[in-house]
Each structure stands twice: as C-alpha cells, then as structure tokens.
Amino acid sequence: MTDTVAEQETSPVSPTPPRASIVGKRRVGDTVFLGLSTTAAVSIMIILAGVAIFLILRGLPAITANWSEGDLAGYQNRNWSSFWEYVGPLLFGSIWAAFIAMIIGTPVAIGIALFISHYAPRRIAGALGYIVDLLAAVPSIVFGLWGIIVMRPLLLPVSQFLNEYLGWIPLFNGPVSTTGSTMFTAGVVLAVMILPIVTSITREIFLQTPRLHEEAALALGATRWEMIRLAVFPYARSGMVSATLLGLGRALGETMAIALILSPSLIYSVLLLTDGFNSQTIAANIALNFPIATDLQRSALIGTGLMLFVVSLAVNMFARYIIGATGPGAKGRKKGKRS
C-alpha cells in the first residue's frame, strides 16, 4: 500500500497540453469572416471621416468669406453679414420640420407596430406589415407630389379649424394659407415618410419581448394593455428610442418633398398654418439652389450641409447615450458603479 502511494507521489505529472492543441487551428472561413467584418467596420469609419473632411474643405471658403461683397453679396435676395446668419434659418427650419414630423408620426408608428405585433390576427398582421414595409420603397418625389396634389387641399379645412378654435396658441395664429403650402402640410408628409422606418424596427422589438414575461403578466390578472405597459414597453424602450432617432435622421435629410411643398423662405417662424412664413430646410435649399450657384455659393451650400452633418451626428450620439442609460442592463451597470 505504501509502495503504491510512493510510486504515485514520485511519478511525473503529465504536462497540460498547450491551448492550441485544445482549441485547434482557426478555420479558413473564420479567418476570412474576421477579415471581412474588420474591413467593413474600418471602412465605415473611413467613409465617415472622408465625408466630414470633404464638407469641411469645400465649405470652409464660404464660412470664412466676407458676405458683404462678391458672389455672396445679396445671395438669395438677402444681405447676409456672415455665414452663420445665413445658415441659422435653414438649420432652424430643418429641425422644426423634423420635430413636427416626429410629434405626428411617432405615436402613429408605435400604434401600428403594437397592433401588428399584439392585436391583429396573423393574416392581417402579415399583410399590414408588408404594406408598411412597401412604403419605404416609395421615392421621396412621389411623396412630394402626393403632398401637393392630395394633402394640401385636404388639410385646408383642418388648418381653418385649428386657426378658428386654437388660434390663441402661437403655432396656429396668423392668417391661414389659401394654398396649403405650409409647415403643417410638410410635417404631415414627413410623418408619413418616417412611418416605415419607425414601425418596422419597433414591430421587431415588440416581437422579441420574452413570451414568459407576457404570460406571467396575464396569469397575474393583467389586461392586455396592462401586460403591454408593464412587460412589453419596458423591454422595448431602447429599441423604440433607436427607431425614433432613425426616423428623425430620415426627416432631417429629406429633400424633394419639402422642396416641392414649402416656399423657399429663409426666416425664423414657428407658425404652422400661414403661407409665405415658413422656414426652408437645409436639404431642400441645397437641392433648389445648387444647379444655379457659383463656386463660392456652392461652397456656402456645402457649408450648410456640414452643419446638417454635425446636427445628425449629435442626434445619433445623444441617442446612443439614451439607449445606454435606459436599455437592458442599465440598472445593473448603475448598481455595479455604486458598489
């Protein structure tokens, strides 16, 4: 017995095999996929940096130029003192139009997504989801023509109603447009244009809610709406924010629909119903004036595009912050920091 124990103690221990022999060699497919994915990630950063550098180099001459002389003097029938005075109304119009579109379109998009995912029968949900996705393929010029021909006369009675009964609110004050080419019409058209993006993403997020959470809420006596409010919305909060911000990016960059509906005015105005007192957007202003602009005027238009690029980047960074603060695991990260 003692000899056996002594032999076990003196016998050499077999060395641990190297990690490479356990894991094995990396497959060729894994190496190729790793290279492709890394190249794609790096290329995105390179393209983004290239766009920013292009906008800065081409827009800098107009940003630093003297707007009281040369091709920029009296540009677009206004005597601008600097580039910042010129880009201000355009930037305001872009943000204001996108904000109106989000106020109108986001609740409708979330409601459609909720109906498709939790209320509609399977056949109706499939058909409705296909129709919503099909809206994303409609060109913006078609939405612009639809806004001019259909929505402008259709919204005139609504504008008159809002002015008559809600005219004490500054948004609906002032003379009502007789043509319908107002910021209100533009906001409605933009709201329809962002519906496919917000609805599709939100619908997929709602469908990913754990089934056990929903069944547990229903088993405890919750109604369907209470189940959605307590189980679905908290789980999908970050996804809803992401979908909303993607829709905001579409509304900020929309060009032809706004160019067809709004008159090219460079003013600050929050009025929704008046004609001729609407702020133009940056994208629409570039589309309307770029073909007839001189070199320095094109530099000014590219400079306004740079401002829109900065705003879009800031919006996306803010969205990432909100998602990180409200998304899954945010509470656990906060507890970990406290501990």
From TrEMBL:
Please tell me where this protein is predominantly located.
membrane
**Cell compartment(s), UniProt:** Cell membrane
One GO CC annotation: plasma membrane
Q: Which residue intervals are annotated with compositional bias (Polar residues) in the record? A: 1-13
Which keywords does this Swiss-Prot/TrEMBL entry list?
Cell membrane, Membrane, Phosphate transport, Transmembrane, Transmembrane helix, Transport
Output the Gene Ontology terms for molecular function: phosphate transmembrane transporter activity
Which parts of the chain span the membrane according to its record?
A: 32-57, 90-116, 128-149, 183-202, 251-271, 300-323
Domain ABC transmembrane type-1, residue spans:
91-319
Q: How does it sit in the membrane?
A: Multi-pass membrane protein
The Gene Ontology biological process annotation of the record reads:
phosphate ion transport
A Pfam entry, by short name = BPD_transp_1
Q: Where is this region: Disordered?
A: 1-20
PROSITE patterns in the cross-refs: ABC_TM1 (PS50928)
The protein's job, in short, is: Part of the binding-protein-dependent transport system for phosphate; probably responsible for the translocation of the substrate across the membrane.
Q: Which family does it belong to?
A: Belongs to the binding-protein-dependent transport system permease family. CysTW subfamily.
Q: Supply the name of the protein.
A: Phosphate transport system permease protein
Q: Please tell me the species this chain comes from.
A: Microbacterium enclense
